[in-house]
C-alpha cells in the first residue's frame, strides 16, 4: 500500500492542500506553522524517512534546537505553498 510519505513530491502536494485548507478555515500563518511543527515532531518520533529528501530533513531536525525546528516547519510550509 502506497503512502503519502513515499514520494517527496506527493508529500509536498499533500502539505500544500492542508495549508490551503487551513487558510480557507481562517488559520493564521503562525498557527499553520505551529501545526507543521507538531506534525514534524510526530514524524520525527514515529516515522522512518521514506526517501532521501525526508532523510535530510530528519537529520536537520535532529541536530536543531526547538527554534531551528520551528524554522524548518515554517520553511516546509513555504515550500509546500510554492509547489
UniProtKB/TrEMBL annotation:
Pfam families cross-referenced by the UniProt entry? DUF3243
Q: Which InterPro entries does the protein's record reference?
A: DUF3243, Uncharacterised_YmfJ, YmfJ/YflH_sf
What this protein is called in its record is DUF3243 domain-containing protein
Q: Which organism is it from?
A: Paenibacillus montaniterrae
* Source organism phylogeny: Bacteria, Bacillati, Bacillota, Bacilli, Bacillales
Q: Which gene encodes it?
A: ymfJ
